[in-house]
Structure formats: C-alpha cells, structure tokens
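Quick note —
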Amino acid sequence: MHTLQHLRIVDLHGNSKRGETAGGDENVFEITEGVAIAVGIAQPGLAQRVEHADLTGPRQAKYESLMANGLHLLAPMVPSGQRLQLVRSRRQVWRNMNSAGRCRHYFQFAIPGW
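Predicted structure written out below.
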C-alpha cells in the first residue's frame, strides 16, 4: 500500500498443501500451490483502494465466474494492522509470531532482505 495506490486481488484458493481442496475446492492449474490474481496500480495522486474477492469451488465454476463477472466480483477491503494484512487472521497467531523475534536472531548468516 505504500507503493501501490490501487490493489485488486482475486484469491482462487486451491492449495492442496494447506487442505484447501477439501470440500470440492479445486486449483485452476494442475499444481498444489494456491493461486491468486493480483493487479496493482502505481499512479501518484490516486486515492488508495484495495479490492478483494474469494473464489472457491470446482475449477470450471471459477472460470465461469471470472468470465461472467470480471472485476464486479471485487469488494472493497480495508487493510488492517501494522502489517497491512489483506486477509482475516487469528490475532493470537500474529502475537505468537511477533514475540518469536526476527529470523536474524536465530541464524548465523544473513542474506539481502533479512
């Protein structure tokens, strides 16, 4: 949000590693990782806006929904917290992660970005 004024995300789910495929949710590709479509617009002067949609279910239903509805699937979403979270999460999990410290405290080496 500090770089992009508009952010549009369609979460297509389907991550079999996390068990998201239970209950008939299918990935849109033949892969095990979940899939999302994200489009960001960086244009100074635009009001900041985040829009988000979740699509779950069979692969063909996701294709049909995307084709029929396009960007009308998206609903406004307000990022929350210091991390500007775009998904709802359990606060206790974040508290535990924050109290654990940073990675550099646990490892003897460092790489750019850590």
